[in-house]
Structure prediction request, 518 residues.
Amino acid sequence: MKVLVFDVSAPYALFRRPYTTTSSYTLPFPPRTTILGLIGCVLGYPKPSKLNNAKVAVQIKGPLRFLRTGTNFVETKREKKASKRIRVSLQLLKEPSYRIFFSWDNEDFHRLKLLLENNETIFTPYLGVASFIAKLDYVGEYNAVRVDPPCEVHTVVPNTVKLAPEPAHYLVFERVTREMDEERNLIEATTYIFRRDLSPVKVEGGEVWKVEGQNIVWM
Amino acid sequence: MNPVLNRSEILFIYDVKWANPNGDPLDENRPRFDEETSKLFVTDVRLKRTVRDYLAERYNETLWVTGEAVVPEERMRELDITDVADACQKCIDIRLFGAVIPQAKKGAMETSITGPIQFRYGMSLHRVKLMTVQGTAAFATKDSKQRSFREDQLVPYALVAFYGVINQNSARFTGLTEDDVSKFLEGVWLGTKNLITRSKMEHNPRLLVRVIYKEGVNYHSGELDYLVKVVSEKEDEEIRDVSELKLDITDLRRRLDSLKDKIEKIEYSVDDRLRLLENGIERSFKEIFGGFQLEKLEW
Prediction:
């Protein structure tokens, strides 16, 4: 299986948790749908639904750091008695950096490779909010081969994979969107796991692929 | 009306003196500040507000986001907007920055329009000192003779850089024209100069660069704001005026040189008081970028 690998970073990012109503808390990594949107943006798709059958894995590269700041939102509901502005606090990721692994059985896969190689994007890529313009760095195209667990995995791991029990390690569990329809309604959510110190997670079972020395699991 | 056909990138640098460039409403309106780096930041919406206000005042343009508290449905009725295309045609700020326009029984995809012009948060190019200045309030309450205290949160000086991209492919969706872009650039420069509310006094535009790529190029360099740096004999926090610093643009020149075959021309505006450095030597913008087709923006 051919896999494109590229890095993405920005000074700030906000991957909003959909269940908070008053404040914007960020997820520590972009959900699968966000990454598909980002790739659709590079390719120039007005709608990313064409990418629904693509395979994506994400590795958190940089340390996770956060910044909290306030902003004014405009009230959009009709006939609200109180103020028409609400002050909310935003939690932003600071200088986040991710490695994206991407595989797709489609004629546009090669076009994506050419675009990434030449550092070109059709639309302007951003991380979560349009003001967080992202920088993409192409790493390469590699052949992925299957690896038999037990082994270490370097990407964020979905909970469909069996983890090896280990003492004295903090694991972070995040339940996030895996698939949405064209109107951004939730179709499927999955729990993903990574180690708080960002070191690889040990797994005992599941579908693991090796790409250039890194073990990945599709989201 | 020429549609926008070229990708371009914008670097905008301005400074503020004894002012609050962008207060944080949840932090007693203190200037937005990154404790880790001691750098100040300004949200993209602040800059967009500056541009919008300028365009409304100078050109009497219709705005979608007026700054008044109004629910979107009401605003749609006021402007008699029927659909997205109509909204783009009526409001210059939608053509520039995009918008979210509610439409009954439509999903998010139909109602949000991505703007062709995107800006990052502006960031000060040096460490900045924060100050709280106290004064007495002008009026007393009721009959009491005692007046209350007033508090101003401000920075004595900050040189702030904004980076943005104008995307020609997104421009097709909102119908952005070159005419809109030139008004926008004027708004960035003159709008910043015209900020004369009490908390935004002494905002001065210093450098505006628009790198225009050739038609058909889907490339942008990214992070132009990271390629300039402040050089000063003073400690960062002690800088109080643009005359006490120089802007080193050696890395910017080097990057743009490497992209020369992709670049059509560079539009720019530069303030007389800003001194530019290349490889340690003070030179004018025209000298440094002499190898490019240059166009000076004048208003």
Q: What stands out?
A: The radius of gyration of chain B is 21 Å. Chain B has a mean pLDDT of 91. Residues 44-59 of chain B form the longest helix (16 residues). Chain B touches chain A at residues 24-27, 32, 34, 36, 43-45, 69-74, 98, 102, 106-109, 114-115, 118-121, 123, 163-165, 167, 169-170, 173, 217-220, 222-223 (CB under 8 Å).
